[in-house]
């Protein structure tokens, strides 16, 4: 029998959290009231009579197909997921989130403006009692450590290898989980998509229904992600089940849409809430303002806050803090200060967050005088005394933006007032000094920490070590490492990695290599970054075989290098003429399971091409196909260039044709390479035939322009002139530049008449040639005794108003 709680939890049980900073939506903390006795199958306040209770239309219970979770339920359920759903495949939910926008029938209306969604406040008359409280659930920390929860999480991690037995175990376990424990399972998932998959799967199981707190938990989780469609469907499911939704539920969906960058859909949630018969309250209005501020719509946020007050919803400090943040983000600091000043008259005193928001902006801009004035106003107007949190905030923000001196001044001021700044604040200033290369002052500050009784930790020391290494003072960094041991602070892997990085950049990669070999003696373990630092140091110093040995050790230690790191080493080997060694090293990495991609193969192919070993390059091309790394257009372009350089254009052409048959699209570099090599050898007809095949696959607007310019560069003006008609078909600025190149080439060979004919063809296509270039052509025509052509050329400019007729010039009547 399925137990139903007939609206056990009423609206009066809702209680609004008074403050939030990171997210304006008052997050629901889920816990079980001590007086509530949840059974293993307890139901939320939902109407399940429209659901088939886990049966499909034919009366069959959930599927037991191996490895597949089959969701069964009412065919009219709005939240229908495909009947066969692989719980182990994250792409399922991801594709649903991206491809099912058309499901939102209530959110339709592409032509609605954002302001239309804000009209929901105008229809609210304030006749209903405002919901001040939201349902408060807390999940005890012990729930996360409960054996049933841990076993459920373990089974979920095995989802990719599910069989009927494992799925049955989780199904049986689900019926034993209490609602807080189901919430704990959802919160324990590192990937929110996995949590959503589990939510969907559990909802389809026979004799199980989600409790209301599970819905709230799922929506809270999704509000911190961009999975807005998932949040929207959970909201729809709550409506189908008859679960009473508070405004905060809609706020969760709104925030998720905002994170996904869908402002219009986020605001339409207000309209959807109105259609659902839910009146807005302070929480949802504050969320709407937050969404508008995050979308850089400050003016609309201000208008919305005015409408709130007109309908009787009084903003609180959190609402005003959102607006203050909006003013600061738009660099309107005066507006933020004015709003703070007006808050008392509106019945809401500013809190420290209000001031801290403005202080952070002033710290970023280094407006220290105004910052101190604001602190005085905080004490005088709002009776808020700066405390240790205030000074820590100022120190961190100033240090973050590189204002170490001002941060240090506030640190001293805080200590004079009796506040104790912790090592985190000191470390922030030390890091800021080190970034600017002021290592001496940073070291002095560390010594002062001992005087103040604040012992530096490993983070502080590591920052100093890295600072010394950045300035090339590696010996001082070593001494600082020894000082850490003397003061009882053990260096960690990050500390040693910073020192090794300094050694490598100082040309002491061999010494860094030896430090890795002795790492076990000093009780520290190198990580992937440590090995990578030393490997690149050896590579930069030309010790390529030692670098290859380091890669082998990385693989042996379980830190395989990335394809980028491998490619840098392959490139260095090829540049050093060791292409055969590069090929062997790449094959070794491939055999050991390293991630080798097409770029790595292309690097080696290009290396053989640079060594003029074209047979080996072609052999590598075949090896790529055998290894499953299909070459791309870059690979074929490199091979074509090498064959074309040798004049073997027939073989080069075959490579391009093969590339086209493989479905690869030629890139602009491919076009330029093909044009250059064919023009170099004067094979214009063959070039045009190959270009026709390439242009069918991928259009390239500048193809014939490049041909003409390249022919001009090689002095083949006759062939270039023949192709001019293909260029002048479009008559653009690019075509005009090509014509200018041809005219200049004619002028350089003293063929002014041919240049004049090119200019005339430009005029006929309504293209205006360059005036200065045409003046040179006219001058050359005059010198050659062709006065009529010279006058005609300049007259064309006069007719088009590009120049005024001058006295003494020869102009034909």
Coarse morphology = extended
Low-confidence stretches: 1-86, 88-112, 127-134, 807-813
Backbone CA Rg = 36 Å
Question: Level of helix content?
Answer: 55-70%
**How many angstroms does the end-to-end distance come to?**
107 Å
Strand order of the largest sheet: 1-4
Main beta sheet: strand number and arrangement?
2 strands, antiparallel
GO molecular function, one term: mRNA binding
Family: Belongs to the PPR family. P subfamily.
InterPro entries: PPR_rpt, TPR-like_helical_dom_sf
Organism: Acacia crassicarpa
Can you tell me about this structure?
The protein has 813 residues and is mainly α. It has a domain at 1-311: Serine Threonine Protein Phosphatase 5, Tetratricopeptide repeat, CATH 1.25.40.10. The protein is 61% helix and 1% strand. It contains 42 helices and 4 strands. The strands form 2 sheets. The chain has a two-stranded antiparallel ribbon. The longest helix has 16 residues, at 733-748. Pfam families: PPR, PPR_1, PPR_2, PPR_3. One of its GO terms (molecular function) is mRNA binding. Belongs to the PPR family. P subfamily. PPR repeats lie at residues 246-280, 281-315, 316-350, 387-421, 422-456, 457-491, 492-526, 527-561, 597-631, 632-666, 667-697.
